Amino acid sequence: MAEEIESPLQRMELLIGHENLKKIQNSVVMIIGVGGVGSYAAEALSRAGIGKLILVDGDIVAPSNLNRQIHATYETIGKSKTQVMKERILTYRKDCMIITKDLFYCEENNTILFDEPIDFVVDAIDTMSSKLAIIKYCLKNKIKFISSMGMANRMDPTKIEICDLMKTNYDPVAKIMRNLVRKNKIKGKIPVAWSSEQPTVQTKVINENGITRKQKMPPASSPFVPSAAGLAIASYAIREIIKE
To answer: What is the pTM of this model?
Structure first.
């Protein structure tokens, strides 16, 4: 008997079955924010077989990204995060369609971003008002999604969990989001990836000319926690897609 020729998605198909693999290959996932969490989510989703990825981010790769963002190398510094992520994915998934949108998310851009059916949205940005807008849009339009909470100032990747926003604790970002959701009277299940590890507090001034606290004292970050969150998010997205 002739030996079967290996294919890139053969091992994934062995895990989830042919029909579920087809579902994944016919699905469209939007990743908003292609940084520490989003880049690893994009990596895992593309390697899992997602047929179409829409990458949304207006930022460029910076030297400070080298410790935790999978597309960040000396060669990509100064280049568009969405573009270098696309180029990376195409080195191992030539059959994945990748759309890049080099813009920072805001609610006004919803008509531009959601101009086609989307099966799943990954929110991997760190602006609270924008996270709220994404959650509201996805709930209103019945789009499956997950929102990443705070991953900075932590070291332990085993503390990553996925649950409803209202069941989180220890996470300052989740606390802010819970208050915003209550204040805006948003109803519905809000799945989030968060860490139960108590974060440290970063107080060292890096940029004295910074306007915001974040610019003056940027959060500390390891290679362990954002990447683990990105992988957990990708796994959740795949499992939700093949649920149907």
So the answer is: 0.94
